[in-house]
Structure formats: structure tokens, C-alpha cells
TrEMBL record:
InterPro entries hit by this protein: IsoCit/isopropylmalate_DH_CS, IsoPropMal-DH-like_dom
Pfam family, one: Iso_dh
GO biological process, one term: tricarboxylic acid cycle
Source superkingdom: Archaea
Gene3D superfamilies associated with the record: Isopropylmalate Dehydrogenase
Root EC class: oxidoreductase
Keywords: Oxidoreductase
GO molecular function: 3-isopropylmalate dehydrogenase activity; isocitrate dehydrogenase (NAD+) activity; magnesium ion binding; NAD binding
Protein name: 3-isopropylmalate dehydrogenase
Isopropylmalate dehydrogenase-like domain mapped to chain residues: 3-314
EC number(s) reported in the record: 1.1.1.85
Length: 321
């Protein structure tokens, strides 16, 4: 039996993840869903946002379906998703964007860079260490090159090697790996890339970059699909996998019914592909497109439907002959 850990998290994660589970259960009613509570709300209530037992559950299941976590500034509350990524060694963050005339994927290194967690404060400053290792770079470059080869496509390496020594290493290793895989590739400075991908999205296929740059770039590309409510993602390692919408917990709309469930449902489709059910993933993709063409959309993409209405419509589309 396929077993999935369900981590709703905070804010609208508690609305969009149940929506994704409802859709996935329409296709796979026999799957086992294991709830795992983590996040800011739990921390406020118990003083603990994530435990070793929670991580043990996530390591035992076939995959993790993750919602969104509120991470307030201030430093007293460590990021839950960063802890999970490191504990499960989910080093590759895969963020696809599809829209008319657009089909590109950002492959983001997921465990190093400025999110390495090496930080400290001094009397007059705060310091964060940006870590780019040879091992980390080679494996994310290999993941991106493999994806580009599967797509019969092209690899773009996003960097800031004109300024950062760590990016000089990243660029040289990514270029070497692309050569080894015989993948056509180009290099772009990350700031110019953020603009050009919006102006000429058809020119891009697979983009690989470092952690923070990938975080920013993949949000930028969300504009091409209509916003963050449309963007799924996969966090992949060699042994574990976690799937989550790109958007945050959006506390300003939590509980209003306005949350767009499509990113979470699309993340479920990515999970199906990863687990070896591509036909089911295609069915979900087709159902989403049918519902959107029928005009059943949440307010963020120009509609008036609520979360549950969109979810029910997708389930009906799946059940239609």
C-alpha cells in the first residue's frame, strides 16, 4: 500500500492540502494518509514545531505532501521546511511553470547557499555564510542535466560569478557536468535572467541555480502562470521526496475560502509521476485544465469560486467518462 505523510502546516496549507488529498483519493481510494502536525501554530501551542519523531515518520513513508509554514522574522523560530529538507537530504527543488507558450523548469539547489544555516550576530552586524560545495553543486547539476536530457532540451546556468567566488565554483562545475552529459547549455547572470525569462520565456527549458537565487527566480516565473497559486514543486533526494505548493501560508486569506488549491493539487500530480503513476498525473492535469476552461477559478486568477468549489469541480472532472 502506498503511504503518504500529510503535513498541512499553517494558514492556507490547512485548506489546500486537504483539497489535494481529496483529489488524489478520488483516483487512489486505498492509499494511506498519515497526518503529521508541524509548524508555527504547533510551536505557539506546545513550544515545538518539529520533532525527531515527525522526521522519522517522513522518512518511513513513500512521499510527503506538504502545505505551507508560517516563519515569522526574528530568529527565535527556525524554518521548519529548511530543517526537513536538510534532515531528509532533499537537495533538489524542482519547480515547473507551464502556460500557453511556456514550459520551463527551475532546478534549485536546496540545502546549501545562503540557506545553509550558518549564521551569527555580532555587536553591530549579523552574518550569514553562503556555502557552495563541490558535492552539492555536482549533484544538483547532474539532476538538472538529467532532466534536460529527458525533455530533449537545453540547460541554462544562472549565476553571479562576476561578483561571487562561490558562484565561480558553481558555474565551473555546472558547466563541466553539462559537458559530461552532452547537454546544450548557456550561462546567464541571475539578475539579467530574471528579466529575460519574463520577456522571452519560450527561450528557456531547464534552469539550474543556487538556493536563494532559485527561490527568487522560481517566484518570478510564477508571473508567467498567473501567480504563486498555480505553482507546484518537488523536493527530491536520493531516498526521500516531498511535494509542496510554492506559495506561502498566506495568513491574510486563511479561512476565507479564497485559497487557490491548484498548486497543491499540481504538487500531488508531481508526486504521482515520481511514484510511477504518470497516467494518473495526466488525468489530474487534464481535469484541472477542463475546470479552468469552464471558468471555475479562485479570485487570484480572475474567478469567483472558493477553494472547495474548485476542488469539487476537479473531482467531478476526474470521475467523468
Amino acid at each position: 500500500m502506498t503511504t503518504i505523510a500529510v503535513v498541512e502546516g499553517d494558514g492556507i496549507g490547512r485548506e489546500v492540502v486537504p483539497a489535494a488529498v481529496t483529489v488524489l483519493s478520488t483516483i487512489n481510494p486505498d492509499w494511506e494518509w498519515v497526518p503529521v502536525e508541524v509548524g508555527y501554530a504547533r510551536w505557539q501551542r506546545t513550544g515545538s514545531s518539529l520533532t525527531s519523531s515527525d522526521l522519522a515518520v517522513m522518512k518511513e513513508v513513500d512521499a510527503v505532501l506538504f502545505g505551507a509554514i508560517t516563519t515569522p522574522p526574528g530568529g527565535e523560530y527556525p524554518s521548519v521546511i529548511l530543517q526537513i529538507r536538510k534532515a531528509l537530504d532533499l537537495y533538489a527543488n524542482i519547480r515547473p511553470v507551464r502556460a500557453p507558450g511556456v514550459d520551463l523548469v527551475t532546478v534549485r539547489e536546496n540545502t546549501e547557499g545562503l540557506y545553509s544555516g550558518i549564521e551569527w550576530e555580532e555587536e553591530d552586524r549579523a552574518c550569514s555564510v553562503r556555502v557552495v560545495s563541490k558535492k552539492g553543486t555536482r549533484r544538483i547539476a547532474a539532476r538538472a542535466a538529467t532532466l534536460a536530457r529527458e525533455r530533449n532540451g537545453h540547460l541554462t546556468i544562472g549565476h553571479k560569478a562576476n561578483v561571487l567566488r562561490s558562484d565561480q565554483l558553481f558555474l565551473s562545475l555546472c558547466t563541466a557536468v553539462a559537458d559530461e552529459y552532452q547537454i546544450p547549455h548557456t550561462t546567464r547572470l541571475i539578475d539579467a535572467l530574471c528579466l529575460d525569462v519574463l520577456l522571452h520565456p519560450e527561450a528557456y527549458d531547464v534552469i539550474v541555480t543556487t538556493n536563494l537565487f532559485g527561490d527568487i527566480l522560481s517566484d518570478v516565473t510564477g508571473y508567467l502562470a498567473g501567480g504563486l497559486g498555480m505553482l507546484p514543486s518537488a523536493n527530491l533526494g536520493d531516498r526521500h521526496a516531498l511535494f509542496e505548493p510554492v506559495h506561502g501560508s498566506a495568513p491574510d486569506i486563511a479561512g476565507t475560502g479564497r485559497a487557490n488549491p491548484i498548486a497543491a493539487i499540481e504538487s500531488g500530480a508531481m508526486m504521482l509521476n515520481h511514484l510511477g503513476y504518470p497516467e494518473q498525473a495526466d488525468l489530474i492535469e487534464a481535469a484541472i485544465q477542463a475546470v479552468m476552461l469552464a471558468g471555475i477559478k479562485t479570485p487570484d486568477i480572475g474567478g469567483s469560486a472558493d477553494t472547495r468549489t474548485v476542488t469539487r469541480a476537479i473531482c467531478r472532472a476526474l470521475q467523468s467518462p
